[in-house]
């Protein structure tokens, strides 16, 4: 434990650890720190991307960029839906809102659900919920007034 504190403080360097220079600050490579922490610490459950079976850091970065893009898209879609209601806007909102909610709840599952079986059950439930949500919004758009008109009707009450 003391060795880990010294490593984080930058006062000690494990054997074979390489340093990376970033500006004037010396930083340890994360892979080296993870390997040293795994050797020196007792068994603990880690939530690193490599253990959960997710892709590379490039894929994670692209996913994060996609999440931000959908969030910014929603900021523009909401006023546009008010100004230009129609079927194309209704289906665009259905897709963007479902995707935004799916990714948001996926992060809640990642943060608060632990263990292999509960994570698999929660993810399965999330996919079912997202599919039902999207199907319900598409059904509402096709057989009823649509999302834009429904919100306008609510505001007119």
Describe it:
The protein is built from 7 helices and 2 strands, in the order H-E-E-H-H-H-H-H-H. Helix 4 packs antiparallel against helix 5 and helix 5 runs antiparallel to helix 6. The longest helix is centred in the C-terminal third of the chain and has 28 residues. The N and C termini lie far apart (63 Å). It is mainly alpha-helical and 157 residues long. The protein has a two-stranded antiparallel ribbon.
The total of beta strands comes to 2
Tally the helices.
Answer: 7
Amino- and carboxy-terminal Cα gap: 63 Å
In spatial order, strands of the major sheet run 1-2
Which properties best describe this structure?
disordered N terminus; 157 residues; two-stranded antiparallel ribbon; mainly alpha; 7 helices; 5% strand
Element layout with pairings:
Layout lengths: L1 H8 L9 E4 L2 E4 L1 H11 L8 H4 L4 H27 L3 H26 L3 H28 L3 H9 L2
Antiparallel strand pairs: 1-2
Summarize the structure.
The chain has about 160 residues and is mainly alpha-helical. Helices cover about 70% and strands about 5% of the residues.
